[in-house]
Amino acid sequence: VGVFGNHQQKTLEVAYDVTGGKLGFGIGGCS
Amino acid sequence: GGERKTMQGHFHTFQVNSLLPVSVCNPSIKGYGKKATLKVVHKHGPCSHLSLDEANAPNVTQILSEDQSRVNIIHFRLSSNSAQNNILNSSKATLPVNSGASIGTGNFIVTVGLGTPKKDLTLLFDTGSDLTWTQCQPCLVSCYRQQEPIFNPNESTTYKNISCNSAECTQLTSHAGGVIKRCSNSSTCIYGIGYVDQSYSIGFFSKDTLTLTPTDVLPNFRFGCGQSNRGLFGGAAGLLGLARNQLSVVSQTSSMYQKYFSYCLPSTSSSTGHLTFGKGGTSSALKLNFTPFSRNSKNPSFYFVHITGIKVGGRKLSIAKSVFKTTTSIIDSGTVITRLPPAIYSALRVAFRQKMTNYPMTKGLSMLDTCYDLSNNKTVLIPKIRFYFQGNVKVPIYPTGILFGHSVSQVCLAFAGNSNASD
Lengths: 31, 423
Known about the structure:
The complex is a heterodimer of chains A (31) and B (423).
Chain A: E1 2-4, H1 6-9, E2 13-17, E3 22-26
Antiparallel strand pairs in A: 2-3
Chain B: H1 2-8, E1 11-15, E2 36-42, H2 60-78, H3 81-89, E3 108-114, E4 119-126, E5 133-135, E6 160-161, E7 180-182, E8 190-194, E9 200-213, E10 216-230, E11 238-241, H4 249-252, H5 254-257, E12 260-264, E13 273-277, E14 288-292, E15 304-305, E16 307-312, E17 315-316, H6 321-325, E18 329-331, E19 338-340, H7 342-355, E20 361-362, E21 371-372, E22 379-383, E23 385-389, E24 393-396, H8 399-402, E25 403-407, E26 410-413, E27 415-417
Parallel strand pairs in B: 4-11, 5-10, 19-27
Antiparallel strand pairs in B: 1-22, 2-3, 2-13, 3-4, 3-9, 5-11, 6-9, 7-8, 8-9, 9-10, 12-13, 15-18, 16-17, 16-23, 20-21, 21-26, 23-24, 25-26
């Protein structure tokens, strides 16, 4: 099992749609 | 020239001093105003009011050591039930120790309100934990030092203890992020959550009003009111659990936000990010690419995803597809450094080193084994790294996510391998 850590998540918009069963990534979401 | 131009497209030009800590906060997120948006800051950075003085702030070796402890516990929680039982049965330790629970230290904090009238509490935010807990007066056994006043249930008109014989108490199960429960007679429901480094919180399982924003208020929010607390939490008042199970904030606010939340972690410790509950919190100009969560019925707390490939400097790592196929991963806001199975990390390391031969290598830093002395460079070219997730979701890693370091003389590739392929 790998772990995708927070250092690599920086500046990404990370969206958890738990009901929809999916994880979203948005590029440049912090600015 | 064309070839050279193409090559340049696979590299970041990186200002070396942008890795160094900055002492002034430069808020970068204003929030989108529509949904429940909380400001996220690094707990040791200048934007945090919990920021420790320089002498007491952890150094990078301590941060990486804590990070390894957290990953060890994640692997323990993911190991087979029989392995966990063997360890639990062989231990005579009291409630929290060896419970297999994970609270982790995390790096990012948010401030929420608890009780009536509300008291602001700054909590570590953690997608790897279910239970939210905070230290509580009168700290019957012990409390560690925190920056804000410790929550006093006697001062809240809406605080209630949960009794042992209630259905709510049964929600404290090992599936809820490793939380354990103790009940004596039919009195108050007791929770315990611990770390193998013997950090822990034990106390009353309780209910009170949670205020996320002035307009987003949740009555009867279930949380841990810690009476015996020990650990290194950087002055935070506790932890905000954002994992999948029924105790988490995500589940308890499902009628308000339909189990949808998003965050953006700041690129440096001197800038700010956000944690937003509910859809519509994301800018409409931003396109999200979705990958499905994988299922794991034995560990329902974690958010499992599937990494299908990695590119370094424009080239896919040459690894047998079967290696990625048999690899599952979790996404975790509390772990700092991304961990990969040994075969994948090894290929990543080889590819990265091949693209960095212009820079002198130096000694490793904790679990980071690919480090460079960049003290003679103002700018460097580092190969771009891109992760692929199931559904052909491409995720480029930002330059500060590729490197980790505290001085220009020791800047490291910010990825690590698991010690064992079966981890």
